[in-house]
Amino acid sequence: MLGGLYKKTTYLNEYRKTEKNLVVVDSGDLLNEHTQIKESFIATAKLKGELITKIQKNIGIDAINVGELELALGLDYIKDIEKKYDVPFVSANIVNDKKELVFKPYVIKNIDNIKVGIIGIMGTTPDVVKPFEEIVGSTLSVLDPIETVTAKVAELRDKVDFVIVLTHQHMGRNWIIARKINGVDVIVGGHHKQKLETPYEANNTYIVQAGEKGQHQGMLVIEKAADGTKTVTNKLVSMSDKIADDPKVKGMIDEYNMEVNKLYTSGPIVKDEAVTLRSASCNDCHSDAYEIWQKTDHAKAFQTLINKDRQFNPDCLVCHTTRFEEAGGFTMKAQEKELRNVQCESCHGDKTEHLNDPSVVSQAKPGVETCLRCHTEHRCPDFEKEYQKEWEQIKH
Ligand code: HEC
Ligand code: HEC
Ligand code: HEC
Ligand code: HEC
Q1: CB 3.0 to 4.6 Å from 21: which of 112, 308, 313, 393, for a disulfide?
Q2: Burial status of residue 137 (CB atoms within 10 A of its CB: 0-12, 13-18, 19 or more)
Q3: CA of 359 to the centre of ligand 4 (A)
Q4: How far is the CA of 366 from the centre of ligand 1 (A)?
Q5: Angstrom distance (rounded) from CA 56 to CA 9
Q6: What is the pLDDT of residues 137-153, one digit of tens each?
Q7: How many angstroms from the chain centroid is the CA of residue 114?
Q8: 281 touches ligand 1 (CB under 6 Å)
């Protein structure tokens, strides 16, 4: 996700050089990726949420709809962030236990003399309600989206030239809003991970959605004639390596990594080169295996994350370190350097006992199921079928 933000910044900065009337919005689930955040990840997740906010502010985002994943970091957190960075969060139907709105229902932007109203909506379809309730319990609830949009569009009608609704719900409900409510120009969908190259159209409302994880930037161009008819083009721009990384964002990410580092390392900072990996303790008696292992990709799995600026991301560390968050394994909190990479004990299990008494041997011959914990079906689809070939590459 962070990778996409480097590119998005470059792309939009470039775009703004020629096009002044750009509105940048997000339909939610922007600041965080998980419903449940483990205790040991909370501090990092909060810093990361803040980092993403800073990058979005730097991009010049006009409105961010509040998705359930924003709330997973706590309502207080999100309200603090809103204030600290003046973030344009919108939600017209998330209310507290007194039925009061928790966020601004909409923002009005004056873009090149066109007034644009942007409304935020949380959906009520089961795919959204379930995680929402898991996260907020009974502290917050959601008002009916259709009634809310109807009311807010009526409120905005005389004040703006253009109405955008950011939604967080199943695509089918976007159709209902488009069909039932007059005066909505564009619906930008979210939560549901659909990618729409050609916008849907109903009742002169255009529905767009740009997939997930910031892999694409949706660029919708609308020209509205005096009589209300619209000319519309849309493209999904892939935030691929073809677009250069933005140096300012790189600076922000470096700063974030330093802050996370401070969070996890107390005492003197040991230089990476001076760290003895846990595997070295096996070298005395299994030097053949050790030498082979050192040449495999497993031995550089952590460097791979450093190269991508992800060395503090639990989502990556889980497979690129040794025995992540298991007893005696690599933990988020301690960031033990000696347990970086996929070392012997990733496959052979905790060898503390064996080191005291070599005759105690467990997990001598790990099977393919050990590999599949990291070489998942999703990531390495043919791994099980090709097991012999894979094993040959690391055989020791
Ligand atoms: C002091 C020497 C010594 C050290 C250090 C040592 N081992 Fe061993 N290891 C042995 C001996 C001896 C055996 C054979 C034990 C037996 O079969 O009774 C063995 C067996 C094994 C086996 C099973 C091999 C088989 O075919 O049964 C594995 C796996 C293993 N060690 C992994 C490790 C790992 C991983 C480390 C480092 C964390 C390590 N060993 C450190 C001496 C050592
Ligand atoms: C703890 C997670 C983990 C386990 C368990 C694991 N791997 Fe890996 N493996 C990785 C990671 C991460 C990489 C990529 C390292 C890099 O390039 O940074 C990798 C890379 C590889 C590669 C080279 C990359 C490629 O082209 O496919 C081979 C071969 C491989 N693993 C085989 C195995 C086998 C065989 C097993 C089981 C005996 C196994 N791995 C178990 C995490 C794991
Ligand atoms: C479920 C385990 C798992 C997770 C989670 C995981 N990786 Fe990996 N990663 C692997 C395995 C296995 C490989 C080697 C096989 C392959 O290349 O697909 C690998 C390979 C890679 C490679 C390619 C190495 C190369 O240069 O050939 C990169 C880059 C990488 N991972 C980065 C990441 C990042 C960044 C994250 C977090 C967003 C991450 N990984 C999360 C298991 C994982
Ligand atoms: C990616 C997983 C993985 C890693 C990392 C790994 N091993 Fe193994 N190792 C295996 C598998 C799988 C086997 C057994 C395969 C078989 O024979 O069925 C094995 C076998 C062994 C054996 C027995 C060899 C024999 O011929 O009897 C020893 C000893 C051993 N490993 C030590 C180590 C040491 C030491 C390290 C670290 C330097 C290490 N392994 C790293 C997966 C791994």
Answers
A1: 112
A2: exposed
A3: 16
A4: 14
A5: 8
A6: 889 999 999 999 999 99
A7: 32
A8: yes
